[in-house]
Fold this protein.
Amino acid sequence: DAGITQSPRHKVTETGTPVTLRCHQTENHRYMYWYRQDPGHGLRLIHYSYGVKDTDKGEVSDGYSVSRSKTEDFLLTLESATSSQTSVYFCAISESRGQGSWTGELFFGEGSRLTVL
Amino acid sequence: GENVEQHPSTLSVQEGDSAVIKCTYSDSASNYFPWYKQELGKRPQLIIDIRSNVGEKKDQRIAVTLNKTAKHFSLHITETQPEDSAVYFCAPTDLNFNKFYFGSGTKLNVKP
């Protein structure tokens, strides 16, 4: 398995509180992603990063912000959590074209289950 | 962004039968066509992929076929087994940007 860990794995919080999820990789891969998974919606892209300090929005970015200050860490922040953000969050990593290990494959973390009451 | 649709959303087959899942996409720049499998409570994992210069790829009981003109690709599973029961996702992508949008998934149930 690719060296990718998410923390926390489970969190229960209240509406209006800030929440930060962390994704840590040991693979030195260039690309990192945050997805949310909800029944009937599959995996929806929230934000992704194509390098340190380089990020872009996905299809469901409202209410979320991200930061990537170093290659190995990609943080997802909910500034003021809402019940609609109750979900399972997956981080993923990928190498980029031109790199020796590039295959196009996404490697996923184990997921973080967030419940907003 | 890419508009991705998967059909069917659920599929139930008898063990030993074949299963086919179709994925349609909108972005003609897509050049990479992977399929992911997610077992219950687990993370998604790549099971097969194909590049735009190839029409078909096979790996034992699974295969992927691509029709770039019609903008769709399909996952084929032959001789299905109970362990094939899972949710399958497609994620057509332009690898010049590596921005992966997933379909909404197909839940495959293989009955023993």
